[in-house]
User: Which sequence fits this backbone?
């Protein structure tokens, strides 16, 4: 490995190379590759102070200010943290925003202690450009879209196959009014980095399976090239009996979720349900919460499927019927995908 800098951004993304990201925490918070660890050379306040010195007195003044801040025990502590990460991840590389002063300085300080670590040429900015190019090129890839009504188990099917991309998993959201998880969604940039990484790791696959998603998953927007690919790809339709769909919906969205969260989620679709149906579903939900009985939960879930999710799904699917190439249960879909698309 080059001990100075690395220009192969595709490999860095595809291989999820461990990265020592020396940017300030506020910069890192805006998004980063999943394999990056934020071990800053300057914290947020220090970076602002150096920035002011640069603004008022130029580059040399900023460099001087930075060295005044990071010296002695502060400098030693930061180098020690870099070395600790590198010891655990021998293939690690250094990265700042544009591959400039901060990563070069960190590289020099480590070299003084006999630790030679390459830096990312062009920094996070170059990785970001590589990410966007990868997403743009996705329009030329071959996709097959798995569709199915709410509670059909589409995500489970995707996760059981190796040639698939789980957008909801990457977005940390199950893609509906009831789809929020207890942990936050990633930043948009981090979501796009993860998606690009998966695409790069599937370059050898002639066809990729992906779920039929709307342009938004929670608060995250699916990149336009992926939306375009989904909207033009052939569809395989997963069919599951209503009773099983209700059970799967309960296990996926309701079990373990507090009553307050369920009420809040239901309120999000009140306008679309209309007051009469909303109050009917809410009353059924309240009874289920009071009785703490799975079977009572099944009743309001069934109402919600009948009143909201199924009509919405049927309306959307009616516009896509010409693209449906196969319809069946999970076993039949898997056989079709392996025989016709090499997806297994």
Assistant:
């Amino acid at each position: 490995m080059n001990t100075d800098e690395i220009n192969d951004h595709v490999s860095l993304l595809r291989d999820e190379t461990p990265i020592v990201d020396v940017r300030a925490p506020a910069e890192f918070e805006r998004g980063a590759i999943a394999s990056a660890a934020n071990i800053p050379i300057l914290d947020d306040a220090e970076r602002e102070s150096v920035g002011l010195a640069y603004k008022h007195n130029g580059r040399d003044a900023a460099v001087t200010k930075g060295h005044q801040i990071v010296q002695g025990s502060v400098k030693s502590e930061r180098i020690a943290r870099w070395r600790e990460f590198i010891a655990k991840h021998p293939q690690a590389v250094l990265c700042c925003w544009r591959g400039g002063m901060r990563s070069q300085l960190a590289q020099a300080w480590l070299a003084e202690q006999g630790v030679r670590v390459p830096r990312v040429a062009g920094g996070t900015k170059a990785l970001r450009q590589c990410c966007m190019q990868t997403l743009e090129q996705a329009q030329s890839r071959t996709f097959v879209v798995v569709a199915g009504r709410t509670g059909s188990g589409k995500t489970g099917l995707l996760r059981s196959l190796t040639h698939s991309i789980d957008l909801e998993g990457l977005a940390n959201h199950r893609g509906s009014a009831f789809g929020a998880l207890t942990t936050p969604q990633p930043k948009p940039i981090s979501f796009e980095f993860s998606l690009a990484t998966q695409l790069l790791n599937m370059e050898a696959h002639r066809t990729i399976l992906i779920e039929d998603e709307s342009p938004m998953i929670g608060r995250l927007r699916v990149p336009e090239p992926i939306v375009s690919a989904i909207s033009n790809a052939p569809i395989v339709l997963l069919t599951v009996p209503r009773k099983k769909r209700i059970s799967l919906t309960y296990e996926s969205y309701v079990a373990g979720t507090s009553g307050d969260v369920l009420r809040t989620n239901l309120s999000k679709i009140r306008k679309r349900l209309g007051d009469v149906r909303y109050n009917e579903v809410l009353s059924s939900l309240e009874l289920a919460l009071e009785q703490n009985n799975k079977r009572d939960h099944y009743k309001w879930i069934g109402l919600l499927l009948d009143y909201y999710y199924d009509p919405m799904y049927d309306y959307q699917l009616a516009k896509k019927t010409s693209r449906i190439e196969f319809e069946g249960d999970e076993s039949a879909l898997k056989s079709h995908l392996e025989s016709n698309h090499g997806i297994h």
The CA atoms of residues 18 and 89 lie 7 Å apart. The radius of gyration is 25 Å.
